[in-house]
C-alpha cells in the first residue's frame, strides 16, 4: 500500500524579505496511511509551510509530493482545490469559525464546495458534530462558544468530508492544558477511525500522543 | 493589500463622488434653466430677423462717413434688396468703429429704431436705450445703453457686457454708457452691439409684425418665400416647437442627473464591496482552504452584489413610483398598472448595477492568497 504522504526533496523558498528564506530545505517525508504524526519545532522553522504544502495551499519550488501515491506536485490551482475538497481537512490554531453563523452552519461550510445537496450537508454536519461531542451546542452561534468548543467545531468542519488526511496547525495552541487534552482525545479518536493526521505543534503533550514525531529546524526535517 | 489605505481611498473616492454629484446637479440645473429660459425668450420675441448671407461690397471709409453725415445707413443696392421683402421696418449697417452710424430707416410711420453701436458711438446716444442684441455674443440678449446721468446716479462702474440693469424685472446687459444726446433724440428698439468681428457691409434688418408668435411665424414663412438666395429669414419659434424643445431640454437634464445618481450609487456599492473583501480576507482564505475555487469566490462576491442590486432595484422602483404618485397625485389604478413593469425594470437595472459594482471586488477577492490571508489573522 502506498504511503498517505510522501515528500522527496521538497523545497520552498520565500523571497518577500531582503534575504530569501528557505522554509523547506529539501525535505523528505513518508507517512503511512492512518498514522498520527507530529512536527515539533520553534516558530519560523517551517512547520506551517510544511502543512500548507501537504495541504496543497502552497506549492513546492522543487521536489515531488505524492498523496496516496498520486503525484500532486504539478496540479493547477483548481485541481488542488478539488483535492482539498475531498481528501484534506484543516484545523487551525485560531479556529477560523464565522462568528455570526451557527455551529451547524459553520460545519456545513466544510462541505459547501463539494456540490452536495443541502440535506446531505446537514446530515453530514450533524454526524461530524456528534463525532466531536458538540451536539448540545446545536443552534448556538460560534461566537458564543468557548475556545475548546470552537476548536472542536473546527475539527468537525475538517472531518465533514471524511478526509484521508487531517492537518492541524497548533490545534491546542490557544487552549489550556485540560481543554487541549480533550482536543487531543478527539483527534486520537478520528485517527483511530483511519484518518492520517499530521500536527504542527509546540505542545509536548501532542508529541506524546503521536505515533511518529519529527523535528523541524530551519526548514530541515528530522525524526525525533 | 492593507485595510487602512484602501479604506482611505474608498472614503476619499466616496466623498469626491458625493461632492462631484452635487456640483454636477447644481450646474446641470442652471444650464438647463438657461436653455429653457432661452426658449421662452425666443417665443416672446415676435420679430423676424433677416440677415444677408452673402458678403456685400465693402463700403469705403469715406462713403461711411458721407452716409453717416446724411443719416443714411443703407446703401442703395442693399436697400433695394431689402425692400423687395415685405414687412421690413428698419435696417442697420455694420461698420468699423467710427463716429456714429445710427438712425431710423424706412417709413417713419412704421419704423422701429435700429442702432448699430460701436463703443465709439456710445457717447452719441441720448438717453437710456434698450433693445435686443442680434449679433455676436449679444445675440438674443436684452441690451441697454445707459445715459451718463443714469450711470452717475447708480454710482456703478459699468463694464461693457458684464454689468446688467433690471427694468420691470428683466435683466439688460449694459453695452455702453452715453454721454451726449443722440442726433434724433430717440430711443432705439433694437441695438446691434458691434464687437469688431463682423465684416463691413453686413446688413441686418428687423421686421416687426405686432402680431402674436404664431402669426409672426406665418409672416416669417411668407418673408422667407420672398427672400432671394442672398437673404436668410430666421423664423421665430412656434409654441409647439417651444414645447418640444423645452421637453427635450428637461428630458436630457433629468436623464443626465439620473445617470449621475446611478453611477454614484454603483460606485458606492463597489466601495462597500471593496471594504467587504478587505474585512473578509481571512474568510476568503478559509474558504479556499476548504476547497473553494476561484469561481466560487468570484460568484460569492459578484453574486452577492447582483442579488442585492436586484432586490434594491425592485424596492427602488416601487418607492420611486409611490413617491411620484404622491407628488403628482396619480390615481391608484394607474400606479398599480405601472408597478409590475417598473419593478421588472428596476430589478434589471439594479442587477446590472450590482454586476458592475461587484466585478472589481470579485476580481480582488479571487486574488487573495489563502496562506497569506490566514497568516494575517
Shape of chain B: elongated
Greatest interface and its participating residue counts: A-B, 23 and 17 residues
**Average of pLDDT of chain A:** 91
Which class best fits the helix and strand makeup of chain B?
Answer: alpha+beta
Q: What is the end-to-end distance of chain B?
A: 14 Å
Helix % of chain A is 25-40%
Number of domains of chain B: 2
Radius of gyration of chain B: 32 Å
Radius of gyration of chain A: 17 Å
Give the gist of this structure.
Chain A is of the alpha/beta class and 224 residues long.
Explain the overall architecture.
The complex is a heterodimer of chains A (224) and B (377). Chain A is α/β, with parallel strands linked by helices and 224 residues long. Chain A has helices at 47-54, 77-87, 103-108, 118-131, 147-159, 177-192, 204-209, and strands spanning 5-14, 21-31, 36-40, 62-67, 70-71, 88-91, 165-169, 196-201, 212-217, 220-223. In chain A, strands 6-7-8-3-9-10 form a six-stranded mixed sheet. In chain A, helix 6 (177-192) links the parallel strand 7 and strand 8. In chain A, helix 5 (147-159) packs parallel to helix 6. Chain A is globular. Chain A starts with a strand and ends with a strand. Chain B is elongated, with a radius of gyration of 32 Å. Chain B has 377 residues and is an alpha+beta fold. In chain B, a hairpin with a 2-residue loop joins strand 6 and strand 7 (170-178). In chain B, the strands form three sheets. Chain B has a four-stranded antiparallel sheet, covered by helices on one side. Chain B has a four-stranded mixed sheet with strand order 4-5-7-6. In chain B, strands 3-8 form a two-stranded parallel sheet. Helices cover 55% and strands 14% of the residues of chain B. The two termini of chain B are 14 Å apart. The interface between A and B is medium-sized, with 23 and 17 residues.
Amino acid at each position: 500500500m502506498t504511503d498517505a504522504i510522501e515528500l522527496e526533496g521538497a523545497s520552498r523558498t520565500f523571497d518577500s524579505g531582503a534575504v530569501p528564506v528557505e522554509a523547506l530545505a529539501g525535505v523528505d517525508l513518508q507517512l503511512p496511511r492512518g498514522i498520527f504524526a507530529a512536527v515539533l519545532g520553534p516558530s519560523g522553522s517551517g512547520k506551517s509551510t510544511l502543512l500548507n504544502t501537504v495541504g496543497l495551499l502552497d506549492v513546492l519550488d522543487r521536489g515531488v509530493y505524492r498523496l496516496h501515491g498520486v503525484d500532486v506536485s504539478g496540479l493547477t490551482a483548481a485541481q488542488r482545490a478539488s483535492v482539498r475538497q475531498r481528501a484534506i481537512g484543516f484545523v487551525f490554531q485560531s479556529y477560523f469559525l464565522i462568528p455570526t453563523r451557527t455551529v451547524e452552519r459553520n460545519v456545513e461550510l466544510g462541505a459547501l464546495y463539494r456540490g452536495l445537496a443541502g440535506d446531505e450537508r446537514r446530515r453530514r454536519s450533524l454526524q461530524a458534530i456528534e463525532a466531536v461531542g458538540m451536539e448540545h451546542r446545536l443552534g448556538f452561534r460560534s461566537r458564543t462558544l468557548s475556545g475548546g468548543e470552537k476548536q472542536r467545531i473546527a475539527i468537525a468542519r475538517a472531518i465533514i468530508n471524511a478526509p484521508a488526511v487531517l492537518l492541524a496547525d497548533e490545534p491546542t495552541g490557544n487552549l489550556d492544558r485540560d481543554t487541549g487534552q480533550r482536543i487531543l482525545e478527539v483527534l486520537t479518536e478520528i485517527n483511530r477511525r483511519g484518518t492520517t493526521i499530521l500536527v504542527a505543534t509546540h505542545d509536548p503533550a501532542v508529541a506524546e500522543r503521536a505515533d511518529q514525531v519529527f523535528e523541524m529546524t530551519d526548514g530541515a526535517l528530522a525524526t525525533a | 493589500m492593507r485595510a487602512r489605505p484602501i479604506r482611505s481611498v474608498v472614503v476619499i473616492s466616496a466623498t469626491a463622488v458625493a461632492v462631484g454629484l452635487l456640483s454636477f446637479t447644481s450646474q446641470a440645473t442652471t444650464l438647463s434653466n438657461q436653455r429653457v429660459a432661452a426658449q421662452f425668450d425666443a417665443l416672446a420675441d415676435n420679430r423676424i430677423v433677416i440677415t444677408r448671407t452673402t458678403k456685400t461690397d465693402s463700403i469705403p471709409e469715406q462713403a461711411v462717413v458721407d452716409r453717416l453725415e446724411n443719416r443714411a445707413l443703407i446703401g442703395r443696392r442693399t436697400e433695394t434688396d431689402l425692400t423687395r421683402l415685405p414687412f421690413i421696418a428698419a435696417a442697420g449697417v455694420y461698420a468699423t468703429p467710427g463716429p456714429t452710424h445710427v438712425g431710423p430707416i424706412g417709413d417713419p410711420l412704421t419704423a422701429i429704431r435700429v442702432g448699430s453701436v460701436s463703443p465709439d458711438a456710445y457717447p452719441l446716444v441720448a438717453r437710456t436705450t434698450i433693445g435686443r442684441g442680434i449679433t455676436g455674443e449679444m445675440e438674443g440678449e436684452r441690451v441697454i445703453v445707459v445715459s451718463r446721468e443714469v450711470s452717475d446716479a447708480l454710482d456703478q462702474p459699468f463694464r461693457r457686457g458684464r454689468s446688467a440693469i433690471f427694468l420691470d424685472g428683466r435683466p439688460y446687459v449694459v453695452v455702453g454708457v452715453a454721454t451726449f444726446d443722440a442726433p434724433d433724440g430717440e430711443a432705439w428698439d433694437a441695438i446691434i452691439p458691434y464687437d469688431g468681428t463682423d465684416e463691413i457691409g453686413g446688413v441686418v434688418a428687423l421686421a416687426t409684425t405686432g402680431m402674436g408668435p404664431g402669426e409672426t411665424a406665418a409672416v416669417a414663412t411668407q418673408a422667407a418665400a420672398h427672400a432671394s438666395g442672398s437673404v436668410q429669414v430666421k423664423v421665430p419659434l412656434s409654441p409647439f416647437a417651444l414645447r418640444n424643445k423645452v421637453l427635450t431640454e428637461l428630458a436630457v437634464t433629468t436623464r443626465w442627473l439620473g445617470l449621475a445618481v446611478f453611477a454614484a450609487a454603483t460606485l458606492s456599492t463597489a466601495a462597500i464591496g471593496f471594504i467587504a473583501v478587505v474585512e473578509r480576507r481571512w474568510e476568503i482564505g478559509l474558504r479556499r482552504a476548504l476547497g473553494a475555487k476561484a469561481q466560487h469566490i468570484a460568484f460569492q462576491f459578484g453574486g452577492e452584489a447582483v442579488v442585492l442590486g436586484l432586490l434594491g432595484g425592485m424596492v427602488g422602483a416601487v418607492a420611486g413610483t409611490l413617491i411620484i404618485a404622491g407628488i403628482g397625485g396619480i390615481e391608484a389604478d394607474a400606479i398599480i398598472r405601472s408597478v409590475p413593469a417598473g419593478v421588472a425594470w428596476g430589478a434589471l437595472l439594479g442587477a446590472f448595477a450590482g454586476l458592475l459594482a461587484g466585478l472589481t471586488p470579485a476580481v480582488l477577492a479571487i486574488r487573495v492568497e489563502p496562506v497569506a490571508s490566514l497568516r494575517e489573522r
